[in-house]
Amino acid sequence: MTDTPTRTTVLHRGVPIGVGDLKADDFMARGDFDALAAYEALRPIVREAQRAADNFGFLPPDGGVVGGIDAAGEAAGDAADALYARVADELELRDIAGALIPCDWIELWDADRGFSLMAGVRTSSAPVHAVREQPTQGNDARA
């Protein structure tokens, strides 16, 4: 990707949930997206995870942003985060031609008209990550 915005579709399990312009710089890409109808099923999951993050990992009762710092709030925050993580792992980005935009991760932030997105974009053309070999033990690295 270049630093020129790229028209992008966000998909969840192959279903488009939003369209927008994605702009990449270095290893990150960002953009604001207009939500499509399918996003409405994910909106509560994204919002609950955001609410937990806003409360430092705790999920307060009754839609609040404070007051969840207890065992129940911590468990609820963990559950909201785990559910969101499963959804985020199922997201993908496609350009206007339908080609996959390789990403290491994608994060959503819900907004009034849609959502914002940040992604770790792969700049290498390799289909897999490089594996770092462990050094051998002992005095002779050739052994």
Question: What are the main properties of this structure?
Answer:
single chain, 143 residues, seven-stranded antiparallel β-sheet, 7 strands, 34% strand
Summarize this structure briefly.
The protein has 143 residues and is of the alpha+beta class.
Commentary on this structure:
Strands 5-4-1-2-3-7-6 form a 7-stranded antiparallel β-sheet. The chain contains 2 helices and 7 strands; from the N terminus they run βββααββββ. It is of the alpha+beta class and 143 residues long. α1 (43-54) crosses α2. It has helices spanning 43-54, 71-89; strands at residues 6-12, 15-25, 28-35, 91-95, 100-101, 103-110, 114-121. It has one domain (6-121). Helices cover 22% and strands 34% of the residues. A hairpin with a 2-residue loop joins β2 and β3 (28-35).
Shape: elongated
Total domains, how many?
1
N-to-C CA distance: 43 Å
The ordered H/E elements are EEEHHEEEE
Radius of gyration over alpha carbons? 19 Å
Helix-strand layout with pairing:
Blueprint: E1 6-12, E2 15-25, E3 28-35, H1 43-54, H2 71-89, E4 91-95, E5 100-101, E6 103-110, E7 114-121
Antiparallel strand pairs: 1-2, 1-4, 2-3, 3-7, 4-5, 6-7
Helix pairs in contact: 1-2
